[in-house]
Amino acid sequence: MIEFANVSRRYANGQFGLQDISFRLPAGRMAFLTGHSGAGKSTLLRLIPVLDRPTSGKVLIGGYDLGKMGRHQYPKLRRQIGVVFQDHHLLADRRVFDNVALPLQVSGYLPGDVRRRVDAALDKVGLLGRQRAQIHELSGGEQQRVNIARALVNRPRILLADEPTGNLDPELSRDIFDRFFEFHAVGVTVLIASHDIDLLKQYPVPRIALNQGRISGFEEAGT
Amino acid sequence: MKPQSPLETRATRGKSSRPLAAWQRHHQQCLRGAFARLIKRPVGAWATILVLGVVLSLPALVMTLGHQVERIGALWMADAARMDVYLEPGAGAGERQELRDWLDGQATVADQKVITPQEGMQTLAKRLQIEGLDSMTHSPLPYVLELTLTDVQLETRLTLAEGLAQKPAVAEVSSGGDWIERLEQIRGFFQELGWWLLALLGLTVVFVVGNTLRLELHERRREIALIALIGGTERYMLRPLLYDGTLTGLLGGAIAAALVSAALSVVSGPMERFASSYGAAIEPQTDPMLIVLLLVAGGLLGWLSAQVIGRFYIGRLSTP
Q1: B60 versus A167: which is more confidently predicted?
Q2: CB-CB neighbors (< 8 A) of B12 in chain A
Q3: Is B62 exposed, middle or buried (0-12, 13-18, 19+ CB in 10 A)?
Q4: Cys bridge to A55: A10, A204, B290, B298, which one at CB 3.0-4.6 A?
Q5: Distance (Å, rounded) from C-alpha A154 to C-alpha B230?
Q6: Hey, are the CB atoms on A74 and B22 less than 8 Å from each other?
Q7: All domains in chain B, ordered by first residue
Q8: What is the pLDDT of residues B298-312, one digit of tens each?
């Protein structure tokens, strides 16, 4: 499903964000990306929904080379990928419902379908009944769950998360990871970047370790 | 069917079963949003609209002025369809008849009337209100041929005047060519100036609206980046901006039309008095076509600004 073949990303100042990255994550599988801040986790994740492009190598999604993809094809690809960021990326001037409904409205869903799907997504993250709440009325953990609901509402084939529990306490972090694990269990391909090794070790999921833009090791589930 | 995206399957393709309804709904949302932003940010939005109104009114005022010059000119032109030919005092009846025959053969002469020296004296006496002037036995005035021309083109007058100048019986021709030429030049100047101003100020409108929209885009950059991330197309992101730009331009055009009407109502008094001195009635009013032109120009320029600025910034925000 997700395949990186000798991928490098070099910036204009000559520094490498990623160097010679190769790995393959089959459809429906889950993996963690680990490494310190600046190791290249975010850079790697950004290449999947084509928010950035590699300077060399290939990124393949479903066997399709993203380098050969035209600009007009990005929206269709991105509608199939749910992305969860550390800093939420929520629209502060909209209600919870509007934030979660956004991917469906962009995809042209009818209002009745939007309502049903938003309710279902909010139910999954335990926020059913908070549709009308303003974003600033929510706690950090609730905001992150809204973020997850928005990433899932379109029923994506791939779910990416970049430090999704960075600001949360251990209990909430565990709750969030449990939900990711549930999505993986229903067939969603999940790739999560996190530096919280202690938390990651609690899940039977393989880990790809990054260091200074290179893969420094693969760790099998449960090690 | 070949999938259009690497992750698209038969199950995920065409989830929105009524794309036309969704498209229509988004247009309605964008239109409502454009009006809502006018209310939400009244100072910024209306300041731009007022600037547009003033900018668009300038070429419209110049064109209106040119149009009024044309109307005043038309009054003069009606008078200018006449040409007076003064004959030599010594010209005999035979020479006069020869000249009249020649004029009969000219296609540009519609009619000719002979004013004898006595008739001329009577007219002068009446105009000057001097008693006894018309009873003078010998009039010092020459024979005059009062010609009515078929058109008032400068070229017609000059050609006829040249032909008449070669006739020995003709002493002088009052062709009035100089002031017609000047009037033509003034009218042409206003028209040309109007179009130049429209082009230059049209460009100004694009920049003014473009700058307002750029600020709006800057404010909404997080939202645009997010919409791009969740699969919004460039057209989807551009649409609200197109409505904002077009609405701003249309309202700017309406303000410009109101300003031109107000300016015309100020000059209407002097113009009516001027026209009545020629025995004519002119009621200065805004040309409905000009109002349509201002609205269309405003709307189009606003739309164009949104296209240029929107495509540039949205492209930068949504693609690597």
Answers
A1: B60
A2: 80, 155, 157
A3: buried
A4: A10
A5: 9
A6: no
A7: 20-76+181-318 (no CATH), 82-150 (3.30.70.3040)
A8: 999 999 999 999 888
Provide mean pLDDT across the span A168-175: 83
Tokens representing A100 are 């979660």
Q: Which of A173, A191, A194 is nearest to A183 (CA)?
A: A191
Using CA atoms of B276, B269, B193, B261 in order, give the dihedral in degrees to the nearest 10. Answer: -130
The rounded distance, in Å, linking the Cα atoms of A103 and A79 is 7
Give chain A's contact residues with B (Cβ, < 8 Å): 49-53, 60-64, 66, 71-81, 83, 89, 91, 102-103, 105-111, 150, 154-155, 157-158
B129 CB near a chain A CB, below 8 Å? no
Interface touch A80/B226, C-beta < 8 Å: no
Chain B residues in contact with A77 by the CB 8 A cut-off are: 5-7, 231
Which one-letter amino acid corresponds to residue B197? Answer: L
B275-296 average pLDDT score = 77
Which residues, including other chains, have CB under 8 Å from residue B20's CB and lie 6 or more apart?
A: none
Antiparallel, parallel or unpaired: β B144-149 and B109-115: antiparallel
Neighboring chain B residues of A76 at a CB cutoff of 8 Å: 4-5, 8, 231
Say which amino acid occupies B60.
A
Radius of gyration of chain A (CA): 17
B110 and chain A: CB distance < 8 Å anywhere?
no
| Beta-carbon separation of A89 and B18 below 8 A | no
Per the structure block, which two tokens stand in for B299? 């709307």
| Helices B177-219 and B42-80: angle between axes, nearest 10 degrees | 170
Rounded distance, CA B255 to CA B48, Å?
11
Asked if B6 lies within 8 A of A50 by C-beta distance, the reply is no
- The shortest CB-CB distance from A80 to any of B8, B234, B320 is to B8
Cα separation values, B228 from A113, B82, B238, Å: 22, 73, 11
Strands, E assignment, chain B? 82-87, 109-115, 144-149, 170-174
Other CB atoms closer than 10 Å to residue A105's CB: what's the count?
Answer: 19
> Cβ–Cβ of B7/A80 closer than 8 Å?
yes
Residue A181, number of CB atoms within 10 A of its CB: 16
CA pair distance B87, A151, nearest whole angstrom: 99
Is residue A145 within 8 A of residue A123, CB to CB? The reply is no
| B279 contact partners, CB below 8 Å, separation of at least 6 | none
pLDDT of B217 above 90: no
* Mutation for testing the B interface, residue in A1, A100, A105 having most B CBs under 10 Å: A105
Report the predicted TM-score, pTM, of the whole model to 2 decimal places: 0.70
The pLDDT, as a whole number, for residue B3 is 46
The closest of A89, A109, A219 to A163, measured between CA atoms, is: A89
Q: What is the pLDDT of residue B279?
A: 61
Check whether B10 has a pLDDT greater than 60: no
